[in-house]
Amino acid sequence: MESTEPEPSDSRPQEEEEEEEEEEEEDDDGAHPLPEQPLTAMEDCLAKKMEITVSEAEKRTGRNAMNIQETYTAYLIETRAVESQGEGQCAPVESLWRRYSEFELLRNYLSVTYPHIVVPPLPEKRADFVWHKLSADNMDPDFVERRRIGLENFLLRVASHPVLCQDKIFYAFLMQEGGWKEMVNETGFQLKADSRLKALNATFRVKNPDKRFTELKHYSDELQSVISHLLRVRARVADRLYGVYKVHGNYGRVFSEWSAIEKEMGDGLQSAGHHMDVYAASIDDILEEEEHYADQLKEYLFYAEALRAVCRKHELMQYDLEMAAQDLTSKKQQCEELATGTVRTFSLKGMTSKLFGQETPEQREAKIKILEEQIQEGEEQLKSKNLEGRDFVKSAWADIERFKEQKNHDLKEALISYAVMQISMCKKGIQVWTNAKECFSKM
Amino acid sequence: MEAEGRVPGPPLPAGGEGPGADSHLAAGVLGTAQGPLLAAAEVLALDDEEDDLEVFSKDTSLAEVNSFSPSVPISPSSMINQYKFEDGPELRDLFITVDDPESHITAIETFITYRVVTKTTRGEFDSSEYEVRRRYQDFLWLKSKLEEAHPTLIIPPLPEKFIMKGMVERFSDEFIETRRKALHKFLNRIADHPTLTFNEDFKIFLTAQAWELSSHKKQGPGLLSRMGQTVRAVASSVRGAVKNRPEMFTEMNNYMETFSQKINLLDKIAHRIYKEEREYFNEMKEYGPIHTLWSASEEDIAESLKGIAGCIDRCCRATERRMAGLSEHLLPILHEYVLYTEILVGVLKRRDQIQGELDSKVDALANKKTEKDLFSEEIGKLEDKVERANNALKADWDRWKQNMQWDMRSTFTNVAENNLRYYEECLATWESFLASQTTDLHVDEDSEDRP
């Protein structure tokens, strides 16, 4: 008899999967050096064939599903085919407008359709981790601008993903303005969606999950927690830094007024005051740059969610598998009992038959037949579920490896860019205070 | 060794016959009442050569002074504050330090005394070294005696009785230290003043034992007579001393009005900056460790994260040093000048009052033609008084302005240096982190290319 235990995930190679996963991990800007193995036309990433930008944002008013007037922002997506031969002639730019809710629909579709893929996250719906200068208003132009960049980043990430970039719905999202929503809904993806995935807190007693996924889930929880904490403190630090710089601006004004009553000190005071103004003003650019760094971290904060979703999916598949196996086992046991007449386990049926007499042999035969059919079905289902589970683990893990590499690369770059920002800030500070010192020494 | 204690003061007036010239001039201005002091100043001027030698040897004792008073900061800039020579580098012959606050508990009260150490080569001092203990009350007494003796000289400010704002307790360590530094400043400013430095009460303050000082305090005009003077001063200044005021003093008044406004604003700004820097420091303290925490979950980027944490911590410490610089130099100086503005306004008023006495007598003379002679003598005396007061104030004003310029220049330059140090430290930290990261990147790339 075939094993009824769910098989542990093994690394038996599956031909198709391997080919796909041997592809190089793509940068979101497509600037990654060409992989050693030439890609087939099918697997060439969209990002390489097409320039994608989210170039504009526009305020619109319209009627929503409940026929109520609302204001929203629409984003212009521009695409242009990349000519690899360099004929000197640029392909025409195609464009269409999408709003945030459509991006959300696209992402939901991708998450459901590719549950084994760590699907890139969208930029935040509402402004979070704000410090006092930033507004929490969704209509605020700075927020809209940063969201525009985030949406573009999302599209580029999807376009550079070896699997996701081939999706027809995604392509239509970029190219087909009208009827796209209907197209998505026609795929019926909502039906495929496992509502249990949303129930984050529900626990399923999974006996034999792949340890890697369990560890990964812990990691994604830790990542989420630590990045949120970091972003919160960073916002407070930014707030305080802003205060330090801006108060120095008061020096400028007072020095200037004071210089009016001084003869010898006047010039020095006045020019020093000017430098204090420069110092105070410099913080605006510095902190704006830092917001982009924060956004980079935020992307991975949201990526942690996507990571957890994949782990969850594995858990659920494993759970279903174990349940199915359990069910099969119990059916087989029932069958055996009926066939041999022994009751191994307590069952109400057993009791009633004892109390009210045994069934007729014909009845028993019928039951056994039904059970045997069910067992047959069950075994086939278990087999396919097993296969599904193994496939899922294999392909999911491959994408997770790809994701890990991407994450390490991106975060390291982000940290380096943070250091670069700090260096620039220090250099500006040195310049201003050197100038100020000179002015003071002339007082 | 000598160079350490010396800081060039504001440029000396040209043509003086030497270091003694300034004090000579100042002494001469004060008139006959200050006879014995004048002689002392002349004596100093003649003993030029000897004075130089004395001062040179004094410099080595500077180190001793520091070792006697470990609580006095020995940082270069604080030495500048201590040993700034206002009248000329070679003239210093009186060195005072205030340190070692001690609590005294009696049945009636608790109070703090400070140790006042004086070292001097002056002839009129019986000894070359004195060590006494004084309490805040004694300083108050000294100040009022000086004001009494020299109504139109600018007497340096004393720290306030107690700070109303904030949570600084009367006897908190911070409060005591701030006060100690201000008292030290106070005595040194007097010592540097060409006239005040020879004041008898000042000498007694520096040298007398506790019981001697008490008995000396009991002599002299009582509180009531002093209050009487103040009342009259206020009254006459209200009555219209302003109308005959020389242009120069009206200008001074106008200047003080604006200056007072600005210095108060600067004081507030400086405190605000300190507060913001402290808040920034508090947040930064939390910021670094988060990166370390994160590195525990990571492999590839763990080193980078720990590197960032290290940089942030180092910048944190640099911020602390920057704050300390502010509170050590900028804040006390600005506060001192805030207090100075009150003093200056008072001095201008007293000058007005002296002039008021003259003016009212002159007015009275216009009405009484019979007692003309008597009046003229009195008026003559008053005119002299007014002239002496005006001259004293003018000279002291010029001196005060020069010192103010020097103080502001050096203090704000120090602030700039402080900030430069901070940014340079942070820059070095981040640059070395960046260097470590980019070498790592190159190593990674190499290993990637290998098949």
TrEMBL record, chain A:
GO terms for molecular function: phosphatidylinositol-3-phosphate binding. Keywords: Protein transport, Transport. GO terms for biological process: positive regulation of autophagosome assembly; protein transport. GO terms for cellular component: early endosome membrane; plasma membrane; SNARE complex. InterPro entries: AH/BAR_dom_sf, PX_dom, PX_dom_sf, PX_SNX4, SNX4, SNX4_BAR. Residues 53-181 form the PX domain. Residues 15-29 have a biased composition (Acidic residues). SUPFAM superfamilies: PX domain. The keyword DNA damage does not apply. Residues 1-37 are annotated as: Disordered. Transmembrane segments: none annotated. Belongs to the sorting nexin family. This is Sorting nexin 4. It comes from Cyanoderma ruficeps (rufous-capped babbler).
TrEMBL record, chain B:
Residues 1-22 are annotated as: Disordered. GO terms for biological process: autophagy of mitochondrion; endocytic recycling; piecemeal microautophagy of the nucleus; protein transport; reticulophagy. PANTHER family: SORTING NEXIN-4, SORTING NEXIN-7. Residues 365-392 form a coiled coil. Keywords: Coiled coil, Protein transport, Transport. InterPro entries: AH/BAR_dom_sf, BAR_SNX7, PX_dom, PX_dom_sf, PX_SNX7. Pfam families: PX (PF00787). GO terms for molecular function: phosphatidylinositol binding. The keyword Coiled coil applies. This is Sorting nexin 7. The lineage of its organism: Eukaryota, Metazoa, Chordata, Craniata, Vertebrata. The keyword Ribonucleoprotein does not apply.
